[in-house]
């Protein structure tokens, strides 16, 4: 699947005649609420996973390379940090933070998640929404004013993660080298 469906409510011309379903989750494609970023993943690997096995552990496309490397016994590059992890040993418990950066129509550009807690920030990196997904699956109750402890914890994690993203050597190389053909 992709990063959330286009719903029946078209906001852009290219969305006309497209439709999808978020099963009631808030948001849709191009937004950072769960309806825009949560998608099902289906894996068939009888040697490792029994049919009908369910796991609600969040994973991302970054996990594909380390997973395939583990399956095949291939080495992953050791000269740089790897953002993904192999999903073969996941138990259902969240094992690492997750980060999204996406310019959105509503001005929210970042989301950061640790375990069941999710923080959504605007384009300047200012926190705007805080959710406990275990207790508020539909992201209806913004806890920004009620959980300063969680807000501080997630902001600390977000700033650290953002710093890592900004200092990525490949990202820096792209910024200083012009695109091919331009």
Short description:
The chain is α+β, with helices and mostly antiparallel strands. It has helices at 34-37, 64-72, 148-166, 169-176, and strands at residues 98-101, 108-114, 117-122, 127-132.
Plain-language structure description:
This protein is of the alpha+beta class. It has helices at 34-37, 64-72, 148-166, 169-176; strands at 98-101, 108-114, 117-122, 127-132. Strands 1-2-3-4 form a four-stranded antiparallel beta sheet, covered by helices on one side. The radius of gyration is 18 Å and the shape is globular.
Give descriptors for this structure.
182 residues; alpha+beta; four-stranded antiparallel β-sheet; 22% helix
In the predicted model, the low-confidence regions spanning at least 5 consecutive residues are none
Distance between the termini: 33 Å
Indicate the radius of gyration in whole angstroms.
18 Å
Number of helices: 4
How helix-rich are the residues, as a percent range?
10-25%
Q: Give the integer mean of the pLDDT values.
A: 85
Largest sheet: 4 strands, antiparallel
What is the ordering of alpha helices and beta strands?
HHEEEEHH
What structural category characterises the helix and strand content?
alpha+beta
- What is the number of strand segments? 4
Task: Identify the overall geometry.
Answer: globular
Q: Strand order, main sheet: write it out.
A: 1-2-3-4
β-sheet strand percentage? 5-15%
Compile the SSE list and pairings.
Blueprint: H1 34-37, H2 64-72, E1 98-101, E2 108-114, E3 117-122, E4 127-132, H3 148-166, H4 169-176
């Amino acid at each position: 699947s992709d990063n959330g469906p286009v719903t029946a409510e078209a906001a852009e011309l290219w969305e006309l005649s497209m439709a999808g379903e978020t099963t009631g989750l808030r948001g849709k494609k191009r937004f950072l609420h769960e309806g825009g970023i949560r998608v099902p993943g289906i894996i068939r690997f009888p040697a490792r996973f029994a049919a009908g096995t369910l796991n609600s552990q969040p994973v991302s496309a970054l996990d594909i390379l380390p997973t395939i490397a583990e399956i095949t016994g291939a080495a992953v590059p050791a000269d740089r940090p790897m953002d993904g992890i192999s999903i073969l040993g996941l138990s259902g418990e969240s094992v690492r933070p997750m980060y999204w950066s996406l310019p959105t129509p509503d001005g929210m550009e970042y989301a950061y998640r640790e375990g069941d807690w999710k923080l959504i920030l605007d384009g300047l990196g200012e926190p705007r929404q805080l959710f406990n997904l275990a207790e508020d699956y539909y992201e209806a109750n913004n806890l920004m004013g009620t959980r300063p402890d969680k807000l501080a914890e997630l902001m600390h994690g977000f700033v650290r993660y953002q710093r890592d993203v900004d200092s990525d050597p490949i990202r820096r190389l792209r910024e200083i080298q012009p695109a091919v053909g331009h």
